[in-house]
Design a protein that fits this description.
It is a single chain. By secondary structure, the protein is of the alpha+beta class. It contains twelve helices and 28 strands. Strands 5-4-1-2-3-7-6 form a seven-stranded antiparallel β-sheet. It is elongated. About 40% of the residues are buried.
Amino acid sequence: MKRFLTGFGLALAILGCAGYWAATPFLHGKPPPQAVHIPADLTSYRDVVKGTLPAVVSIESTPKAMVARTKLPQFNGNPFEGIPGLPDELRKRFEEFEHQTPAPHNSHPGRAFGSGFIIDPKGIILTNDHVIRGADRVEVQLQDGRKFTSRDIKKDPKTDLAIVRIDAKEPLPYLELGDSSAMEIGDRVLAIGAPLGLRGSVTSGIISAKGRDIHMNMYEDFLQTDAAINPGNSGGPLVNLAGQVIGINSAIKSETGGFQGVGLAISSNLAREVMDQLLKDGMVHRGYLGIQVQTLDPEVASRLGGANTSSNVAVTTVMAGSPAAHAGLKEGDIVTSIAGKPVKDGRDLQRIVATAPLGKPVELNVLRDGTAKTLKVTIQEQPRGFASAAGAVPEDASQEAETTSLDKVGVRITDLTGERAKQLGYPEKTEGVLITDVEADSVADGAGLKSGTLILKVDQMRVRTVEEARKAFEGSSMDKGVLLQVRTPKGGTTYVLLKPTQAVR
């Protein structure tokens, strides 16, 4: 009670001051200022809710069979899982979000419960893939209590989107997809769904950020909102004050498993592209280049490309037999544009390739060792077996080899023999200098280098032997930073900048 009174007294003191100044004109014989008119649309969302709520549905799904859960993020079946060469760092990021998806609320054991909304009066419903994942049939309940059962399900796990068709005998209330790109940070929004099974719940908030990429799906474009989203909200609409859907509520960032002010909704523009293809073909066709890339630190990008490019996308892996391999793309190339469109980051490249015309040659512009090159690449459809298992990189690469110490960065290195390459899983005839040991708390340790990693270049100088590497390091400047191009057996090539500030303390 004392804390309340203290706060209350402070509030009175502040209001008292405000009252004094507000009352002054009246004491001087002047009438008090008129109250500011607040438009009705600022005091209530009732009209928006009345126009949108009837089209929001609850979805209960029944899995084909009960199976033991594996340790995967709650966007089950993540398309990144098992991609060849996926770095351990990225896998850890998936694990970080493991309990941060508003997964379908379990109203019954063995079933999942979520939300969705009608997008066509004929009975087409848009929702999240993780709401209906593994189900052979779903039960859909409208706000007026009507129930429908459907086995007509089409889905796209790579964006976590799905559509469900129900057999409606008459036109149903529906919502329109708005333009998510027109939304701005600070715009007010409503999230509608069935959090924790409470059908027809509405929460309000604003757009907190745009274009979020949280590495939960292969293709992402999230709107961040502070409108409350909880388990059971998944698949429900995020609407603007015109009643248009500008996002599909999908995930939360949370340390507790419940809402903490950070909700994420798939943008309506991405959802529209996916929905149109699911309705037309029952699946989504995407372009495939066959590479993995690294987003470079701006300082690294400038040293590799100078003032010639604003791109920071470096090729780390070129998959054998892929369109990129046929076009002559090489590891270490910096991609500057494709199909006439500039590439600024990895997401740019991913989206351009995914939506590019299939089977038609396009220009691919790259920087290779600082020299601009133009390649011709024919983008093909992304193969179904894009995700396959990849092994771990061996941690101990010493093999009792004769090693040389590079004291100023904190590593020991040795020549890569054919036998060591085979043991570590490197392709035949791979050239480079093998790191056998990384000193704790060293510059190399701070930069994330591990034993088993292969050094290919030092400050863009190719090194094939320990002696070449030693001379290259001796001629380098730690004040400026030593730029390495390195390779792991499963992760392709990447660039690492070694600077004294990276030493672990």
